[in-house]
Write a structure and sequence with these properties.
26% strand; 7-stranded mixed β-sheet; 26% helix; 9 helices; 15 strands
């Protein structure tokens, strides 16, 4: 699915393009499934506008969206030692909404047999963000209280489960239609943000894991424990700076921590192991065929998904 211009509709088209070539350090993967992230929505629209300084002023480069993949290795470069053709893998790339993609060895890990293609495709960004944000950024400890704001979305459904896996008591904030979902994922308490202002709760939290920034960060101070911290993941959309504005503010405000996940093969492998063991359950809201990838991205951008949205390439 190729993007030739910016916009919210009609900018992606199904085209035949050349199969990517690889060098000695490259891995060519035939993709089975990909998943969609908010990043794809921002890039498709070219907003916030500052992104165009890096992507291209009139059209994005590279022109194919998608950064999460699961598939089979088709070919490897001469310097590759960990993979060979036929291996089942998942991880990251640039241009996952395609039949083939060229990526690098360090962005891939082996897919366990007990993990489906769709499940594997959800782990690269969303699950990695939840794991690293909770375990590494704030080092959640057993017995701590964690508030997950935006618990019903892609990152949020993973955050609820990973916080529980780390031993925390979890309160989940989400929409009415996702309350039962987050309960099933292990949340100890749930708050319907349409019915209750969670920033006026009587409970004080050690960690607030805030995805999307539905409320000003200053409001969260009311519910932070004396040594509590807030982790800011993404932010509300805007034309010029978008999530970057919120992340910059979090860098200078006390006890506020911006966070963006880093590529890490060991962490991907751990997430896949947790899925195979049944300790982590990817939530997949909808699955789209490749030719409807634009609709999948728009669905994510509208903020509707409960969990992740997957695109099937085959």
């Amino acid at each position: 699915m190729v993007q030739r211009r910016y916009g919210s509709a009609g900018v992606l088209s199904l085209e035949d393009v050349a199969t990517p070539s690889i060098d000695d350090k490259g891995v060519l993967v035939r993709i089975h499934t990909a998943s969609v992230n908010a990043l794809d929505w921002h890039t498709m629209r070219g907003q916030p506008y500052f992104m165009r300084l890096f992507l291209g002023l009139r059209e994005p480069k590279p022109p194919i969206r998608g950064v999460d993949l699961a598939g089979r290795v088709e070919a490897v470069g001469n310097a590759i030692t960990r993979f060979r053709p036929g291996d089942e893998v998942f991880g990251g790339c640039d241009g996952a909404l395609a039949e083939y993609v060229a990526t690098t060895e360090d962005r891939l890990v082996s897919k366990p047999a007990g993990v489906t293609w769709a499940q594997a495709a959800t782990l690269n960004v969303a699950a990695l963000t939840a794991l690293q944000g909770l375990r590494d950024r704030v080092k959640v400890q057993r017995g701590q209280s964690v508030l997950v704001v935006g618990a019903g979305g892609g990152v949020g459904t993973f955050a609820v489960q990973i916080a529980k896996w780390l031993g925390a008591r979890v309160t989940a904030v989400t929409r009415t239609e996702s309350l039962e979902l987050v309960r099933r994922l292990g949340a100890d308490d749930v708050i319907d943000h349409r019915q209750q202002d969670f920033t006026r709760s009587d409970t004080r939290f050690d960690v607030i894991f805030d995805i999307g920034g539905s409320r000003p960060m200053s409001h969260h101070r009311r519910i932070m424990a004396p040594k509590g911290v807030l982790v800011a993941i993404g932010g509300p959309p805007s034309r010029w700076f978008g999530p970057a504005d919120r992340l910059i503010k979090a860098m200078v405000l006390p006890r506020m921590m911006p966070f963006v996940a880093k590529s890490n093969a060991a962490d991907r492998a751990l997430l896949a192991e947790l899925v195979e063991q049944g300790a982590l359950k990817p939530v997949i809201d909808r699955t789209y065929p490749l030719r409807e990838a634009e609709e999948a991205i728009a669905y994510v951008g509208a903020g509707h998904p409960r969990g992740k949205v997957v695109v099937e390439i085959d």
